Amino acid sequence: MKKQTIPIISLNKVNKIFPLAVGGSQQVLFDINFTINSGEFVAIMGPSGSGKSTCMNIIGALDGATSGTYELYGKDISTMTPDDLATIRNEYIGFVFQNFNLLPKRTVLDNIMMPLMYRGIVMRDRITRAREMLKLVGLENFEVYYPTQLSGGMKQRVAIARALAGNPKLILADEPTGSLDSKMGNEILKFFEKLNRDFGITIVMITHEFQISQYARRIIHIYDGRITYDGPVPKSETILLKSEKRAKK
Ligand SMILES: Nc1ncnc2c1ncn2[C@@H]1O[C@H](COP(=O)(O)OP(=O)(O)OP(=O)(O)O)[C@@H](O)[C@H]1O
Ligand SMILES: [Mg+2]
What is the pLDDT of residues 209-242, one digit of tens each? Predict the structure, then answer.
């Protein structure tokens, strides 16, 4: 039986304007519209400064839109209290960042257990779950290591284990391979592919590298705060670059 797909992320005419310290303001996103359904694997691409992270922060309910609506699991984010937002982030979303964001003074196991503590899960179950996740990312022999004792790729695998510990339906990753060499980067992406295919986890990932986007099944290309391409992953980058050119006109 085919799994039912439901809209998870839905942006409707989302604009984002930042006030500038020197006065005035800068508009960074312009009328962004898209829907991402459960089970999708989407890469958000575009040049530096085009608004990718700004868009991701809105998707992750870390920042609000200036206007327009954003619905996460059918709920309008702007109507939620900060407590509700924290709960929805903790329960539904696993975040993965370029710089791993691990706590340096905590062991690998502690790092993975951390989000579970906020859910009120008892210690024994936290340890069991964290160990399962470490095994899943192939680092079961490293639980008492500190992040500084690991390679970049291993750190990112710990960060992914932490993101997965809470059993998220959605993974948001901002340049997850940005600090890794291409071999490590490809390994991480193969793992994402598996999570998406075998566990049905929806993945939205920002990347600069066209080669990395090949693991996704859809690309949303942003240029100067506007979507210039939204469709299947093309074989060559030319289509995306052409979409930028058209937007420049
Ligand atoms: N908190 C903020 N206050 C003011 N301006 C901001 C803020 N965050 C981002 N910007 C501006 O918004 C624009 C888009 O930034 P954003 O970080 O979304 O780009 P990006 O596409 O993620 O770039 P990169 O690929 O370099 O990470 C930039 O011009 C940036 O200076
Ligand atoms: Mg960014």
Answer: 999 999 999 999 999 999 999 999 999 999 999 9
Question: What is the span of the domain harbouring residue 115?
Answer: 7-248
Query: Is there a domain that residue 153 lies in?
Result: yes
Q: Give a yes or no: residue 51 inside a domain.
A: yes
- Residue 53, ligand 1, Cβ within 6 A: yes
CB atoms within 10 A of CB 66: 16
Which is nearest to 98 in space by CA: 17, 54, 159?
A: 159
Check pocket membership of 18 for ligand 1, CB cut-off 6 A. yes
Helix or strand run (H / E) with residue 243: helix 238-248
Q: What is the mean pLDDT of the chain?
A: 93
Nearest to 205 by CA among 189, 227, 187, 181: 189
Q: Ligand 1 centre from 53 Cα, in Å?
A: 7
Q: Is the C-beta atom of 22 inside 6 A of ligand 1? A: no
Inside any domain, residue 203: yes
- 1 found inside a domain: no
pLDDT one-digit tens code per residue, 67-93: 999 999 999 999 999 999 988 888 899
Domain count along the chain: 1
> Is pLDDT above 70 for 3?
no
- Model confidence at 1: pLDDT above 60: no
**Closest-approaching ligand to the CA atom of 46:** 1
Sole residue written with tokens 């990753």: 173
